[in-house]
Amino acid sequence: MPKGYLALVLHGHLPYVRHPEHENFLEEDWLYEAITETYVPLIMVFERLVQDKVNFRITLTLSPTLISMLSDALLQERYLNHINKLIELARKEIERTRWQPEFHNLALMYLSEFSKARDTFLRYNRNLVSAFKNFQDLGNLEIITCGATHGYFPLMDIHKESVRAQVKVAVSHYESVFGRKPRGIWLPECGYYPGQDEILKEAGLRFFFSDAHGVLHGTPRPKYGVFAPVYCKGTGVACFARDLESSKQVWSSIEGYPGDYNYREFYRDIGFDLEYEYIKPYIHPDGVRINTGIKYFRITGSGNHKEAYHPQRAHDKAAQQAGNFMFNRQKQVEYLYDFMQKKPLIISPYDAELFGHWWYEGPMWIEFLIRKIVFDQDEIRLTTPSEYLSENPRNQVITPSMSSWGWKGYSEMWLQGTNDWIYRHLHVAAEKMTELAKNYPQVNGLTKRALNQALRELLLAQSSDWAFILGTGTHTEYALRRTKDHILRFNRLYEEIKSNSIDQDWLADIEYKDNIFPGIDYKAHQ
Amino acid sequence: MAKVRKTRKSKRVKVSRAKASPKIELKKETLYAQEIAVGTAKFSHPEAPRRMARTFPQELPSQYGVDKMVLMVRDPWWLYTYWEVNNSTVERLKSELKEEFYKARRILRVYDVTNIIFNGSNANRFFDIQIHEFANNWYIDAANPGRSWCVDLGLILSDGRFITILRSNVVQTPLDGPSWITDEEWMIPDDMFARLYGMGFGQGKSSPVGKAWRQRIISSPGMASMASPVKKPQQKGFWLKVDCELIVYGATEPDAQVTVQAKPINLRPDGTFTLRYALPDGKQVIPVKAVSADKLENRVITPIVTRETK
Hints:
The structure holds 2 protein chains of 2 kinds. Chain A folds into 2 domains: about 5-70 and about 125-260 and about 310-410, Glycoside hydrolase 38, N terminal domain (7-stranded beta/alpha barrel, Alpha-Beta Barrel), CATH 3.20.110; about 415-525, Families 57/38 glycoside transferase, middle domain (immunoglobulin/albumin-binding domain-like, Up-down Bundle). Chain A is about 50% helix and about 10% strand. Chain A has helices at about 30-50, 65-70, 75-95, 100-125, 130-135, 160-180, 195-200, 210-215, 245-250, 270-275, 275-280, 310-340, 360-375, 385-390, 420-440, 445-460, 465-470, 475-500, 505-515; strands at about 5-10, 60, 140-145, 185, 205-210, 230, 240, 345-350, 380, 395-400. In chain A, strands 1, 2, 3, 4, 5, 6, 7, 8, 9 and 10 form a 10-stranded mixed sheet that branches. In chain A, helix 12 (about 310-340) packs across helix 13 (about 360-375) and helix 17 runs antiparallel to helix 18. Chain B has helices at about 10-15, 20-40, 85-95, 100-105, 190-200, 210-220, and strands at about 70-75, 80-85, 105-110, 125-130, 135-140, 150-155, 160-165, 170, 185, 245-250, 255-260, 265, 270-280, 280-285, 290, 300, 305. The longest helix of chain B has 21 residues, at about 20-40. Chain B is elongated and about 110 Å long. The two termini of chain B are about 65 Å apart. Chains A and B meet through helix 1, helix 3, helix 8, helix 9 and helix 12 of A and helix 2, strand 1, strand 2, strand 8 and strand 9 of B. Strand 10 of chain A pairs antiparallel with strand 9 of chain B.
């Protein structure tokens, strides 16, 4: 008899990066790396589980920007070129390392992995979203939505119309992709400001996630802490809070799993290590060295000395750590069950790219964990928020506290000296967008196109990723450029719409560049 | 758990504790460090020095010609406000106040408007921050979590009168600890209840939980250090790396079969070939054998290479 539930939640998101105007664009690699290292490996894990009839449950956010990129024909074509080049490089590496067996075997491993990535990609007709949709249709995956472009809601609260547009555009996009409405949403960065659940309710969303203190510091006190969802006062939208203990086991820089010395070292990539002329065709066309994805070393220790990666040892370690994670959840659930006289729900959310891209062995760890939970014990049961709510509909009503899962738990990551200046521009644009939506209730043709494009530009400018990168203070050039580009395009559209002088060629050009959300309706910004 | 609430005595004292709730903080600080690392790795190319040269877009407007003051919450203790004063508003003030305008002090007046509908004069209390003339944004140490705030940008004239130029929106800072309100309210959403009712199910049970359980949630052991084994290793001081590769190349008839160390290789259309090997220390014997297309002739050449590193 299960004594509690575990909900694994993976948050998959990348900002919209697509530059048809350039033949090569460095930042598009974010997507290609994520496909090869995270999304394909996760799909392969799910495929194996389905094949072995393992009855699993996972909740996965696919942000609308990520879905849009995964479904985009140009980016699909470019990914195919990218993975083909990697396969070519892996073949060369097999030759080059012939007298170094420890690396040679790894080169063989990479060739096999890259080939599988390409096969998987082609098997789903280049559109990996359809793979995830299959797992949802089978009942194993609950796919939830996110802000349309991952705008950070608490700093948008002054113009709620923008929050509404982020939510409504996301929900209708989800519907067009998955053929049904989303039940839940991952608030970008878990950013919640009291009252915004009203907008979620309007959009038909039943639940969202917050960080632990969003619920623990809510009013009145939550009787079961983070171990049961709460309903937001006034709307009844459910809020599920993160369990810090299980997060820490995976995330923590000290005792966290990904830091194990047997695991693959992220920072030693042949893109930086090998002789320049040899590696040049596989790094950036401008000759800047970048990560290729072929990495031969394990973390080894805390110093600079690195030893060759040993796949079997890493594999064993992942199995052992999955067992450790499960054991700790069993103990946690037993303890809580005695205390609560009710089955606790443990919410363990992670950034999807932690698995595979950052923590190479992560997908393997998830697979071990799921198999162990399903076959080796009865104390915990995997669940999703929807399933939990339908079995446990009676929950406490509180007002959660403003919070995020970012640095320091509130808004500082996106509001500090290096990025605070963006809000005066974003807010004025939001105000203007509301004005446009109000003053042009019925339009057609060119004006309608311009209004829809204006909303696209505003949404793209609002991506929290730009503020995040500006906040980290390194390699900020691209984030700065995107913020400026979209705001300037918005401002010009606003002027041209108001003065009825829309430059058709220019509009067509930015529609071609910023082509996200083909079915967008500018009236969502109200 | 002990409440970490303090009354506001001195603003300066609060600066030092301007961070998330200390107990959660210990546990979370390491989580955040790792999350930022993963977030950053997502947007990686960590080593790339300068990217491709790109034309930079034009600058954003420095002003939008509006009167606007926005107040935002950074965390339980700090607020952020930015503002823009339209030129005509400045001109109007100048003509109304004449020289007084230039003598006046610029002030942010921060009102605590918790649980009231603010009308400009009924604030629970307020405090002033003197700012300089060209400031257009400010971080405010409000120091009290769980309160509602509103800010005026204004002038204090030499006779002590306060003149409001702009007024912000109202925001609420979150609590930095558990709420002291423990009244419970429970619900089952109507549609779910209807479904349950139809299926003849009863309602879930609940029972009180104790203090120890709360403490367990909040006060778990903190991390000892922020050092991460996964973090990027730093190069210390001056350094040198050396490695060797060997290039073996040659040519034969384009339709010949060639093996190197008994392993077949591909020829270019003109019959040339190039092979590249990482060269470890030790001796490598590298027989290169070519067999003619009709299998009647063959040639073998065997370079022997020794690498020694001192």
